[in-house]
Design a protein that fits this description.
single chain; alpha/beta; serine acetyltransferase, domain 1; 2 domains; five-stranded parallel sheet; 14 strands
């Protein structure tokens, strides 16, 4: 069945429906099937000599079906389907750079195949990059559905509207939150529990930049919280664990808490402790 005939049949089948949101289960199955198509094996998917498989065309059909729950215009469905799948080769290459960045950065990673199939940070990054393409196509709801599905599987919450540069590496990842207007440069590395958030969540501020900018070659260690649309972390900086930042830092800064170590003696508490049991 050609894509045009498939879309026409969907249009006739769904024209009387009043649904304005996608089938959740179908969308979740689609994004997992797409991820497995791209990374189920480590091989070049989109070289010019390759004929695209039946699996690829089935994915296109499924995507069109999902879009029909959101967009009831045949030409618009075809346009957005073509735009999304035309972008896949570039997204695929970008994600391979992310995977190689993780392999180079994490001493526990043994192979690129391990990163592709076993690293939740890479899975979350992949779903983000696919969702971000839909976000930039101004498709409503579906990018958030994909992002929240990845969040539920990995504990990593990346808004599809965020801007993330090449060679992005997440280590461990659980508890990471990256807000909608965050801008992240290239070769940035982030550990678990990092929040790139807003200082103010007033609904009236929805249209302005609320989240920080992280420039190139920054490392952010676990538990760090960086807030505010005017906050810029300069290139090459290192942000230590459990840091709370609401202001900018210059390039090549090192920001960290200084721990104090005291050896216990017969009086380990220099100040009186008042407590009730």
């Amino acid at each position: 069945m050609t894509e045009t005939i498939f879309i026409q049949e969907l249009f006739q089948r769904n024209r009387k429906s009043n649904h304005a949101f996608p089938d959740k289960a179908l969308a979740e199955n689609f994004i997992d099937d797409l991820f497995n198509f791209l990374f189920g094996s480590y091989e070049k998917k989109f070289n010019s000599a390759e004929k695209l498989t039946a699996e690829y065309h089935e994915l296109r059909h499924t995507f069109s079906a999902i879009l029909f729950e959101l967009i009831r215009e045949e030409d618009q469905v075809k346009k957005h389907t073509s735009s999304f799948f035309d972008a896949l080769p570039a997204i695929y290459e970008a994600l391979l750079k992310d995977a190689h960045a993780v392999l180079a950065f994490d001493p526990a990673a043994q192979s690129i195949e391990e990163v592709l199939v076993a690293y939740p940070g890479f899975y979350a990054t992949a779903i983000y990059r696919l969702s971000n393409q839909l976000y930039r196509q101004q498709i409503k709801t579906l990018p958030r559905l994909f992002a929240e599905y990845a969040h539920s599987k990995t504990g990593i919450d990346i808004h599809p509207g965020a801007s993330i540069g090449a060679s992005f590496a997440i280590d461990h990842g659980t508890g990471i939150v990256i807000g909608e207007t965050t801008v992240i440069g290239e070769r940035v590395k982030i550990y678990q529990g990092v929040t790139l958030g807003a200082l103010n969540v007033d609904k009236e501020l929805a249209s302005i930049k609320r989240h920080p900018t992280i420039e190139d070659d920054v490392i952010i260690y676990s538990g760090a919280t960086i807030l505010g649309g005017n906050t810029i972390i300069g290139a090459g900086s290192i942000i230590g664990g459990n840091i709370w930042l609401t202001h900018s830092v210059a390039a090549n800064s090192v920001v960290y808490h200084k721990s104090e170590i005291k050896i216990k003696d017969k009086d380990p508490f220099p100040e009186p402790l008042n407590f009730v049991i």
